[in-house]
Amino acid sequence: MMLEDELTVSTRERDGVAIIDLSGDVTTFAEEKINNAYREVTSKGARNVLLNFRQNDYINSAGIAILIGIVTEVTRNDQKLAVSGLSQHFQKIFRMVGLAQYAEIYQDEQEALAAFKARS
Amino acid sequence: MSTSACSQTSLELSLPSELGYELVARDAVAAFARRLGISAERIEDLKTVLCEVCINAMEHGNSLDPGLRVEIFCQVENERLVVEVLDQGMSRYTAGATPLSIGDKVAGRGSLRGMGMLLISQLCDEAGFVPWSGPGNRFRFAFHRQPGPNLHG
Q1: Cα dist. B98→B22, B65, B124 in Å?
Q2: What is the CATH architecture of A16-119?
Q3: Residues of A with CB under 8 A from a CB of B
Q4: What mean pLDDT do residues A86-109 have?
């Protein structure tokens, strides 16, 4: 019996920032959903992308690999990437693996949007 | 999954090699660690380490064969929570070389995967394979019950 994939991914736009909301576990099963959401916002011309996590209590190394893939695409497409909503533990993990070098980490969506606005 | 508590300070779990079951083990071991008085912050580290070790055992040790089991043994030794994870794989796997940096990965110089062992080594107080003559791989890691000099974060 397979255990259920519990990640929900959706996209929206706010203040000129493409927001990808991720709610649930970020594991190997999340690859298609996350990549599709990123391709969707990129195809609409997004320059600023926010990965907005919502109290995800499980992001494993396979999930981190997916996010490194997004970082690779963001770099290639000359976009700006930020993340918000991570728990303190996963903020530490993001710094540990180096993701924080490529994506600014903010406590919440409001803080991230304010930072994007200040940089524009 | 089966569980048994041999004594007040030990716990044994047995999982099928299917991704997702590491979460079941994670919650059980986290509850066990909480009873031992390990801090909430260190339990978050323990949860990540346990999941990564279990995934390695399932993927690399047991080749995701659901008929093969992953066994988890938790016990307290000298004020440390010691966890051993055994698989039934017929081939040995090792930690391998130093993992690629994220810069190399972003530059396309290697696989995007491979951060699991880095997380394991950074988050726990001791970790490594245990040499033994039995089948499969035996990986052992430990967390001190009290904050020690190797405390991270």
Answers
A1: 25, 28, 18
A2: 2-Layer Sandwich (3.30)
A3: 1-4, 25, 27-29, 58, 60-62, 64-66, 68-69, 71-72, 75, 87-89, 92-93, 96-99, 101-102
A4: 96
